[in-house]
Amino acid sequence: MEEFSQDIQISHSLATETSDRKQFFKRLRNKEAAEPEEMSFMGHLEALRWHLMRSVIVWLAAAIIIFVFRDWVYDNIILAPSSQDFITYKSLCDFGQWLGVGNSLCMPPIKIKFLVTQVNGTFTSALTIAMIGAVIVAFPYIFWELWRFIKPALSAKEKKYARGSIFWVSLCFFLGAAFGYYLLAPFTFNFLASFTLGTSGAIEYQPSINDYIDSLTNLILGCGIAFELPILAYVLAKIGLITASFLKRYSKYAFVLILLISAIITPSPDITSQVIVAIPLLLLYWISIQLVARVDRRKAKEEKEWS
């Protein structure tokens, strides 16, 4: 009977040992699977190449679609800011009437006849519209691919802080693009179309279609990029390169820089367009200070908890 119980104990211990050995190798396999080898430099280049290829494919697909519907895009989007029936002109006039300032905000109607001086002028203009329009349409996806490439290098804490970044970056870009299209472009083209040189009337205003498209796309893309200021400030604050006190201390230099950026973005030399750009940029700078101050308070709280 004792020999039988000893056999049972030996069998139980062997089974336990076998189970423990299996659990050990299982944990070992899971550990190896959870800790892959660090990607080499060529591996990073290969991953970047695929991210770029997917971005180019999406951009190219958007460009083809825009090129197919180029007539509608040209008539309803490209020409709209130069048309007297553009929604901004009517809205500003109605807003002036509501404020009780009469027609002071009403812009005079403009009519621009574009000139084509090259044999392939209309074709190159259509290509430009398709390519720049595709960049604007595919911007969220392009940034998403960039985020996917950067994400593996971030820590869990950094990923937590970057949650929702694709939405906020895209939102700021589209808000800036809409600001440049609906507000800045009408003021710019209205000023340029009504600006005269000399009193003889010998000059007929007929800008080339390429100049008009370049001016419009510069306004849209320039404002879209400029509106990323709060996002950039937030990232730099998380890295530790700037603080709220730093932004406040150099606010006067930032004011001069904003005026310079406004002058670069606006193709027209009139002060009105530059002020229209400068005011929202100053507002974005103030928002950036508030975001950075929030990051500073969070860092100070974490340091206090650790201490």
Write the layout of secondary structure elements.
Blueprint lengths: L1 H33 L6 H28 L1 H9 L8 H13 L21 H17 L1 H12 L5 H6 L3 H30 L14 H18 L2 H11 L4 H6 L1 H15 L5 H36 L1
Structural summary, described in words:
This protein is globular. By secondary structure, it is mainly α. The chain has one domain. The chain contains 13 helices and no strands. It is 76% helix and 0% strand. Helix 2 packs across helix 5 (121-137) and helix 8 packs antiparallel against helix 9.
Number of domains: 1
Helix content: over 70%
- Mean pLDDT across the residues is 78
**What's the count of strands?**
0
Q: So what's the oligomer here?
A: single chain
Distance between the termini: 64 Å
Tally of separate helices: 13
Q: Based on CA inertia axes, which overall geometry fits?
A: globular
Order of helices and strands: HHHHHHHHHHHHH
Could you provide a short overview of the structure?
This protein has 307 residues and is mostly helical. Helices cover 76% and strands 0% of the residues. It has one domain (42-195, 205-306).
Please name the defining characteristics of this protein:
disordered N terminus; mainly alpha; 13 helices; 307 residues; 0% strand; globular
